[in-house]
Amino acid sequence: MDYTARERDADFLMNDVFDVQKSWAEIEAYQELSSDLIKAVVAEGGRLASEIMAPLNEVGDAHGCELKDGEVITPPGFKDAFAQLTQGGWLGLSGNPAFGGQGMPKSVAGLIEEMFWAANSSLFLYGSLTVGACLSIDAHGSAEQKNTYLEKLYSGQWTGAMALTESHAGTDLGMMRTKAEPQADGSYNITGTKIFITSGEHDMAENIVHLTLARIVDGPKGTKGISLFIVPKFLPNEDGSLGPRNGWASGSLEHKMGINGSATSVINYDGAKGFLLGEEHQGLGAMFTMMNYERLSVGLQGLGAGDLAYQHSARYAQDRIQGRSATGAQNPDAEADSLLVHPDVRRMLLTQRAYVDGCRAFAFFAGMQLDAAKHKGDEQADRFGQLLTPVVKAFLTDKGLEGAVMAQQILGGHGYVKEWGVEQIVRDARIAQIYEGANGIQALDLAGRKVVRDGGKTLAELLDVLAEFEIDPEHEPQVAQAFARLLRASQSMVARSNEDANLPGAVSADFLDLMGMTLCAWAWGVMAHQAGDDDFGLAKKQTARFFFARLLPRTLGLEQSILASSDVLMDMPEALFNA
Amino acid sequence: MDYTARERDADFLMNDVFDVQKSWAEIEAYQELSSDLIKAVVAEGGRLASEIMAPLNEVGDAHGCELKDGEVITPPGFKDAFAQLTQGGWLGLSGNPAFGGQGMPKSVAGLIEEMFWAANSSLFLYGSLTVGACLSIDAHGSAEQKNTYLEKLYSGQWTGAMALTESHAGTDLGMMRTKAEPQADGSYNITGTKIFITSGEHDMAENIVHLTLARIVDGPKGTKGISLFIVPKFLPNEDGSLGPRNGWASGSLEHKMGINGSATSVINYDGAKGFLLGEEHQGLGAMFTMMNYERLSVGLQGLGAGDLAYQHSARYAQDRIQGRSATGAQNPDAEADSLLVHPDVRRMLLTQRAYVDGCRAFAFFAGMQLDAAKHKGDEQADRFGQLLTPVVKAFLTDKGLEGAVMAQQILGGHGYVKEWGVEQIVRDARIAQIYEGANGIQALDLAGRKVVRDGGKTLAELLDVLAEFEIDPEHEPQVAQAFARLLRASQSMVARSNEDANLPGAVSADFLDLMGMTLCAWAWGVMAHQAGDDDFGLAKKQTARFFFARLLPRTLGLEQSILASSDVLMDMPEALFNA
Predict the structure, then answer these.
(1) Predicted structure pTM score
(2) What is the ipTM metric for this complex?
């Protein structure tokens, strides 16, 4: 499936919009990052995405994965393409240099991850889970564990997976039944069944390292009794070579709506040997190191899907001739005008583009906060990163699906048949709203933990910091109004939550949506100001005008909806939902 | 897939909300329709839907259709189920009694069609296209054509299909290339290739009657040169028995995102014999008799999908235990509370339900307008029907997808795997926004032809008629505000369209959405007023409160967006969409 990496947009964000060199100058670890180096890295990532990964996107969907004699066979070509991804060091892009990582900023890595997701989300999942596993091991592992695992994971010689979900316990991890029995040698025997395990078993690496949540026998009930274990497919020998096969296997593959090239396994642990990662009973915290990274990255999956869909539908709209302009034939020599003469087709394309570009900008800003928190110990940046992460995850994936559905609509019947590829983007994009914490959980995290808990303080600080950016004068009043609206909504939510424990959850989805729209408004205000007068800049300015005139008005309704009481939800007796 | 037909809702709409007996008393053809008869018909339709059609819904998706030696094989069980559908006379439910139809009102037929769509949209497509073909033949056919075709189609002995689309010409029918050559015997030889032909070829009826659009050679260019032809698979003998096979065949089956049980063919006409239906070069008008019917019905397909998805997710939410209520354990003896304690899960369920019930109500009202237009020659009702049809088609199918996606979200990971069935509803529902006139075309039809063309007169009349219904006092101000908002938006659109030919298309999608929301608001105001104090009535009143507090606010943004100039769309140079 054709995909063009957005190198120019990456450059625009780094240099014109956010002036990253200025921020990086204050960070020791980034001293050697020149513009030229970054440009070359982005270009090479884009090439890999468009030339190696994208051509396999439809193949992965059509072939899917197969479980044969306990082994999972990935789609044709995946193994070679993954080898190119790993040999280029891409899995260790933002990894710890002490173990062979490249130490790149998360913000830059995010630009490249977006390209990988766009090009082939199923294929990149094998890498993404590995990157996440490295983060957990780097943060919580012993020196020995880091030595044993990190370098092999960064290099893709081994890959990672996270094993949380059980069939009766999805979001509610406290109900988990997988158990861990302490052994005399300090390891644990893990027994239980996990479902929905992405990259849990496959044929693209010599070893697969599960980070598995389980309950140590006789440990506390609920989430407080859960620990995290490293449970590799093959037990490493002391010299790092592969020892005996461990006691787990893929029992079956899930049959999914999409991301068919990604192998999603049911994993049966039958007394598998596991090694405690971090402290006993502190597994959720250790797992969330991985989850938070994944959440940001999964947001970028939504972004990538949205851009891939945009690119397809924009090309189609230009090439396809149908009907005539309402103002008279624009292309009188042809049988019809292009789809681009129709205002409603333009509306759909500009909607897609406005969200893709706006979201990319604020996701990049979120990445910069994570970088500053990690390398400068910047406490405020840390809070900003935590506040922005659920918005990036949920808003970008919601808009990713919305954009893919719009692209499909532009193609009409061709959008519904497999031949043209766009229906696959819809099916693939849909998962990103569900996994790594469903979007409703993101919204509750934002409303409850990130806003109500500190009385809206961090949000207000964030808006102050954002207001320091130069906004295009044409859009300054609209951005100011959007900020004021979000602030009013947050204050109302905070005030009413004191007396109504259900209030944050009742308004959370609309609140997250409002915050995403406000961040887009800010991003467009800043981008319009920095855009030049070439085609690239004109497209940005015009898209900004569209966003403010046609999309931002949605926030009027969101604010009003947030003012509603939780009673309109909670007063309905349970039995009546099925009456 | 389990599905419960909404008999109680049908009864509520017919008797409490719209008092159909009063309207029917004025229509000669409906004199014999007693409440008891209608109730029995609805109950039997519901039984057929839930007991015969619904159990085959997943089978149809999993097996799909197969083309073998030129014959299309439908999924296991489809043939028997379709036989029960046809033997019960369901295809002729609102058909002309002179040829064996049941003569039921379109409004009532719509309630039952919703059930059939919900239970198994792929299976019902074989019937729906037949019903549409009958309408065209009944309206435009010669006495001989009616005698030859109608009875056999109503009875399902033969089925119908409509053949419009060609690969280069989707919405733009004027570009059509399929040609018709007049023959000495008065028939025409049809040659060309059509794509996306639903029920174009299958194994469930002894004959398949295509209504095919083609251009008579040397006829005028563009849409004015298109004629409609009856092109049966087997040419009927004079006694009605089957004669020789006609010269068309299914060249291949389309591979689609969903509705896999419905056979969608590429049809090659190789000098097939066709019989002119209606006048030469008047094919589009004759086809639109069928299209308009289909448009209303396809709206009901969206409604059915939305309700099916609602039912699944509501059951799941009640059965599934996850987490605890924010106000403390509601079910302390169990490991966790049901999903229904979580406000955001309730928000999703109530959103689904509010659209399903609200849309059902105004679609029923639209059906009543078609009935009054047909049987009383009521000119105003005819205009109302034409005004409402695009809204029913587009708004109901948009909300159908939205509801199905929400249902999937409630199921989390289980919503993404095939096992639980909900992802199929999403894939199946998606087509309804695309076929029978893509929703963008519906919006343009509404904004341009139905509102701007008569200066908003019919819309204003409609709002006056709707205002005569008794609205629940709790919601009266909100309904009045919604009416005022729609009126303002229409006046602005009408006024600006005089000087800007692109304006209707620029704001059409938001205008249709605003009109759908306003009709829902009206429906909820009326339903809340008529609802009793039993569980059914309480659920209605509570859902109404939710709708007004949480969904209607969307209209604030829609109005503002409609006020934008078309420049924000049209000023973007074409080349920049792909820059």
Answers:
(1) 0.97
(2) 0.97
